[in-house]
Design a protein that fits this description.
By secondary structure, the chain is α+β, with helices and mostly antiparallel strands. The chain folds into 4 domains: about 5-130, no CATH class; about 150-250, Tumour Suppressor Smad4, CATH 2.60.200; about 260-330, no CATH class; about 350-395, no CATH class. About 40% of the residues lie in helices and about 15% in strands. It has 11 helices and 13 strands. It has helices at about 5-20, 25-40, 40-65, 75-90, 95-110, 115-130, 135-145, 245-250, 300-305, 350-360, 370-380; strands at about 155-160, 180-185, 190-195, 200-205, 210-215, 215-220, 225, 230-235, 240, 260-270, 275-285, 315-320, 325. Strands 2-1-3-4-7 form a 5-stranded mixed β-sheet, sandwiched between helices. It has a 4-stranded antiparallel β-sheet with strand order 6-5-8-9. A 4-stranded antiparallel β-sheet has the order 11-10-12-13, covered by helices on one side. Strand 5 (about 210-215) and strand 6 (about 215-220) form a beta hairpin. Helix 2 crosses helix 3 (about 40-65), helix 4 (about 75-90) runs parallel beside helix 6 and helix 5 (about 95-110) runs antiparallel to helix 6. It is globular and about 85 Å long.
């Protein structure tokens, strides 16, 4: 989780805690610590909890200093305070981060299985200020606050169950026949997934008695979790469930044209040598990420060059949906992308200029000011400010 997201959450959590008449209770502190523990290591957990305490004290003082005459009642006070801080927070967050802050806020307020009127009001203000769409607000609210899955758009829900449906409870829902389904061998109970379309995020919750683990901690049944790319849900007797394995099921219906990439009896030899690519075949369907592994000099780059059409095989053919990528390349123009392993940096330019040049290529519609802000943010995120004006050739 990026620092701006964590800082945003700390500020909103602090304001939420200030809304309770008695301030934050010992139980409230335990809930916050438990929440931070799910996403951070012990050192960062302590650091951000200390930051929360400082931020909580700051807003307590701010609240006390507000004039009663300027704000007519408690409701307007809440609206003023939350809206103001959300507008400030929004400036430092990308769209996907704003949605994640909203989702994490939902997760936090329901940590104690309760939702009071003040908390609901905060959620609505955050959603409005962050421009969360009505569909995603309603879906997230219904999914995360009590698993009212029949109120969620059916195209955004998927369930995963074992082959025999052991401990499954999805049959209790009216819309279960409209949901996407995934069979996971030896899984007991049901995993429910919500697709947040605007940022391709996945929220999941589990119903069952099997011991499942997420980010090294036990999955609590009924509790929502944010499933991020590269992170998996694990269990003793089941295959790890990854973000990529779930998200592609939401796209198969949207993109009905299946892509089949095939190599048939490929062979290639270097001049005056019997080394090259020995006879081989492969097939890859759309929606999969495939790695080619091997030691130095065994032919990985050669094979990739044959697969992208740069090199012609001595024998065999490579096809994309039946089109030969070498003899029918004009029919496939623009469909295959290739990123070589060589450095694509311009050595005569500085670090900043290299990033600016590439940003201009990628974001042609952006203004000079917008690109400058974006490049400076990347430099800051990667802690490269100190070398921003050095020529790349002096660093290689």
């Amino acid at each position: 989780m990026r620092e701006p997201v964590l800082l945003a959450l700390v500020h909103i959590f602090a304001i939420l805690s200030n809304m309770n008449p008695g301030g934050i209770s010992s139980r409230g502190r335990k809930i916050l610590q438990g929440y931070l523990r799910r996403y951070l290591n012990p050192e960062l957990e302590d650091e951000y909890f200390s930051l929360f305490e400082e931020t909580y004290d700051f807003y307590t003082e701010e609240l006390a200093n507000l004039s009663d005459d300027s704000l007519s009642d408690e409701s307007s006070l809440i609206t003023f305070q939350i809206t103001n801080i959300c507008r400030q927070i929004r400036k430092g967050l990308f769209l996907d981060e704003r949605v994640i802050v909203f989702l994490q806020l939902l997760e936090f307020v329901y940590e104690d299985d309760k939702l009071n009127d003040q908390e609901r009001k905060v959620i609505e203000i955050v959603a409005n200020t962050f421009n969360i769409s009505k569909k995603e607000f309603d879906n997230a609210f219904a999914f995360m606050l009590g698993e009212r899955l029949d109120e969620v758009s059916s195209d955004c829900v998927m369930i995963a169950e074992g082959c025999d449906g052991d401990e499954s409870d999805s049959h209790w829902f009216e819309n279960t026949n409209d949901w996407k389904k995934l069979v996971i061998e030896d899984l007991k109970g049901t995993l429910y997934f919500l697709h947040v379309e605007s940022i391709d995020a996945l929220i999941f919750s589990y119903s069952g008695s099997q011991a499942l683990f997420f980010k090294g901690r036990s999955v609590v049944p009924g509790r929502p979790y944010l499933l991020e790319p590269g992170v998996s849900i694990k269990g003793k007797s089941i295959k790890s469930i990854y973000y990529s394995g779930i998200i592609r099921h939401f796209y198969r219906e949207k993109y009905s044209d299946k892509i089949i990439f095939e190599g048939e009896d490929l062979e290639y030899s270097f001049k005056k040598s019997d080394q090259g690519v020995k006879k081989m075949s492969f097939r890859a369907d759309s929606g999969n990420l495939i790695g080619i592994m091997g030691g130095s000099g065994v032919g990985k780059s050669t094979l990739l060059n044959i697969m992208n059409g740069k090199m012609q095989p001595a024998k065999g053919r490579v096809s994309l949906n039946g089109y030969d990528i070498h003899s029918e390349s004009e029919e496939l123009k623009g469909l295959i992308g290739y990123i070589p392993q060589d450095d694509l940096l311009l050595e005569e330019l500085t670090v900043y200029q290299n990033l600016y040049y590439n940003a201009k290529l990628c974001f042609g519609d952006a203004t000079i000011e917008q690109i400058d802000v974006l490049v400076n943010k990347v430099l800051s995120d990667l802690e490269l400010e100190d070398i921003r004006d050095l020529q790349v050739q002096s660093l290689l």
